[in-house]
């Protein structure tokens, strides 16, 4: 029974990949991002578990689909695997973004990030542009403010006058809040 299910799944994958290949061929001038749970790995390194003897026949058609359509599978950051079995031993990289060359030309720094999976058996994955992202900016400052006479001294004196106790993140947040209040009154 299990062998029949595997063969049906393989056949279903081939039908799906042929359909996607036809779409890509028909609309080749468009920037493509093909994503999802492909339910297959590209190599034996993308699978770990009780039964690691994956044969070439299992992942060769998927690699042919990717290579034949000139799709790019960028590296995965965050985790090595996107699916985990409940036993904690078996894991695979089943989810991915496959990008066309024209997509990577438009968005050259795309990376795939596997986020924490929480209660699910799959990790959500995120396609993002690899730019320096330090989170929200704690203070907005216009460069022209430095042209105001005495502004630099005001900043130094204000920051030194604030006395806040607590852990470093809290201290920074409170000092910035107080500085913002002082800045509003400074004219």
Automatic annotation (TrEMBL):
One of its GO terms (molecular function) is endonuclease activity. Pfam families: Exo_endo_phos. Keywords: Endonuclease, Hydrolase, Nuclease. Transmembrane segments: none annotated. It comes from the Eukaryota. InterPro entries: Endo/exonu/phosph_ase_sf, Endo/exonuclease/phosphatase. Residues 8-107 form the Endonuclease/exonuclease/phosphatase domain. This is Endonuclease/exonuclease/phosphatase family protein. It comes from Medicago truncatula.
């Amino acid at each position: 029974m299990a062998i029949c299910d595997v063969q049906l799944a393989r056949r279903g994958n081939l039908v799906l990949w042929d359909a996607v290949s036809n779409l890509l061929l028909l609309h080749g001038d468009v920037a493509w991002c093909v994503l999802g749970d492909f339910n297959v790995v590209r190599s034996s390194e993308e699978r770990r578990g009780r039964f690691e003897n994956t044969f070439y026949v299992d992942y060769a058609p998927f690699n042919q689909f990717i290579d034949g359509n000139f799709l790019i599978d960028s590296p995965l950051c965050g985790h090595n695997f996107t699916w985990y079995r409940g036993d904690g031993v078996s894991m695979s990289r089943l989810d991915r973004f496959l990008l066309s060359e024209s997509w990577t030309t438009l968005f050259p720094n795309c990376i795939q990030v596997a986020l924490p999976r929480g209660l699910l058996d799959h990790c959500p994955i995120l396609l993002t542009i690899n730019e320096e992202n330090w989170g929200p900016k704690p203070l907005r400052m216009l460069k022209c403010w430095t042209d105001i006479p005495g502004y630099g001294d005001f900043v130094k004196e204000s920051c030194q006058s604030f006395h806040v106790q607590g852990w470093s993140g809290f201290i920074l947040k409170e000092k910035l809040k107080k500085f913002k209040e002082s800045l509003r009154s400074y004219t």
